[in-house]
Amino acid sequence: MLAAHPAVTRARELLDRDNTRKWTLDELARDVGLARGIPPATLFAREIGMTPHRHLNERRLHQARHLLTTTDLSVTAIGLACGYGSGQHFARVFRQLTGTTPREHRRAASPPPAGDAAQDQAAESRNGKWRAGSKTGTGW
Fold first, then answer.
1. What is the phi-psi region of residue 25: left when phi exceeds 0, alpha when psi lies from -120 to 50, beta otherwise?
2. Is 65 within a domain?
3. Is 70 exposed, middle or buried (0-12, 13-18, 19+ CB in 10 A)?
4. What does the DSSP assignment read for 36-62?
5. Mean pLDDT within 11-35
6. Percentage above 70 pLDDT, the chain
7. Where is the HTH araC/xylS-type domain (predicted)?
8. SS3 of 22, please?
9. Which burial class, exposed, middle or buried, applies to 13 when counting CB atoms under 10 A from its CB (0-12, 13-18, 19+)?
10. Could you tell me if residue 128 is inside a domain?
């Protein structure tokens, strides 16, 4: 695999390090030393297969997924912490790129509630009130 253009490598480093910043293509081009007339989005897409904007959203979503599954912060707070301007914008981008909402992602990743059926069955079994195959626990 060929090494990416040095400006693209530097741009990825900047986007990854400061993914909450509201980057513009002009700022990114200037910060990585691209000469005027070299479109950073085109160069970036050619080198790594996505635009800087898409790369930035991917990094932000990676961080958001982590926060959704490891904290109890609100969806809005997570969106703002990850660089989105509002909770609504974050939820819209999250759904567009993942096919699920942030709340659905959090629910799917969280452990089952403490009173789930398996735990209830285990407790009833210990108390002699449950028999395998019995839905009501009165199968004795």
1. alpha
2. yes
3. exposed
4. TT--HHHHHHHHHSS-HHHHHHHHHHH
5. 88
6. 77
7. 9-108
8. coil
9. exposed
10. no
